[in-house]
Specification:
Blueprint lengths: L1 H5 L2 H4 L1 H16 L13 H13 L1 H17 L2 H17 L13 H17 L5 H31 L3 H12 L5 E4 L13 E4 L10 H7 L2 E5 L3 H14 L1 E6 L12 E5 L4
Parallel strand pairs: 1-2, 1-3
Antiparallel strand pairs: 3-5, 4-5
Helix pairs in contact: 4-5, 5-7, 6-7
């Protein structure tokens, strides 16, 4: 009810909502490997690597030790929490598309079982002061383990995305009235700005010969997030167009800081 109250689109336009939902469901959740991927790309193998990279070694090891402890101790309330981790891991691990954000539901449950494990160990120590020092010490170490990555990520995200940097450069250096073909994941232009911009959403226009594109457009903006472009389209552009500028930066996430290239087409 809360979802529909804040986001009534499924009710107002159910046909389009369901069509998009079904499309995303089939693309992301439909069981099976995406074309060209190996068995190791399954979430069953990718999620541990993703969580290790985001949590750090110490929290990850404590989490694994907590799972083993729950299995050995067999306490019902802990098994209930662990059951969610197992069910979600087995279910989401079969999805075609695996990214770090899909593992987010696992982290709170890892924190819960880790806390239970740490308090169980502290209960074996003699003296309240000693137990408190142990718990506080472990908490500080677990938090400190992820601090360097948090600082690095925050620093990267505090800087301008490569798409914004490329946009600002384009506005200052490309003549007004130029015709532009751009791929998805490249700088976006507002309606009514000084360029004629076409977005190749379906990745069809770029299949034309570069010389033919040069008769319709002056510039092309490409992103390495469009995998086919990196292997084919950019190869053809490098041969017959002029690379004017490139923008790259350190990435903090899957859709962050794509490598942007601006090409001037022949004949333009």
């Amino acid at each position: 009810i809360g979802f529909l109250a804040g986001f009534p689109w499924p009710i107002l336009d159910f046909t389009r909502f369901f069509a998009r939902f079904a499309d995303r469901f089939q693309l992301i959740i439909g069981a099976g490997l995406s074309q060209g991927k190996s068995i190791l790309s399954y979430g069953w193998f990718s999620y541990p690597r993703i969580m290790l990279g985001s949590m750090g070694w110490l929290p990850f090891i404590v989490g694994l030790a907590s799972i083993i402890w729950i299995i050995v101790k067999k306490q019902k309330r802990d098994i209930l929490v662990l059951s969610f981790i197992i069910v979600f891991y087995l279910f989401s691990g079969s999805w075609k598309v695996v990214t770090g954000r899909y593992a987010l539901p696992l982290y709170p449950f890892f924190a819960i079982i880790s806390a239970r494990f740490v308090f169980w160990i502290s209960g074996k120590l003699k003296g309240e002061v000693r137990r408190n020092y142990f718990v506080y010490g472990v908490v500080v170490m677990l938090l400190a383990a992820g601090l360097p990555e948090i600082i690095r990520t925050d620093y990267i995200l505090s800087r301008k995305d490569t798409r914004l940097v490329a946009y600002e450069w384009f506005m200052k250096n490309v003549p007004e009235g130029s015709s532009v073909l751009r791929e998805p994941f490249t700088p976006e232009f507002r309606r009514g700005e000084k360029y004629r911009v076409k977005v190749d959403w379906d990745e069809v226009i770029k299949n034309k010969p570069v010389e033919e594109l040069g008769m319709e457009y002056d510039y092309v903006l490409v992103s390495n997030f469009n995998y086919s472009s990196e292997h084919d389209f950019e190869t053809r552009l490098n041969e017959k167009a002029v690379l004017v500028k490139e923008f790259a930066g350190e990435r903090a996430g899957m859709f962050h800081n794509p490598r942007i290239r601006i090409y001037k087409l022949p004949g333009s």
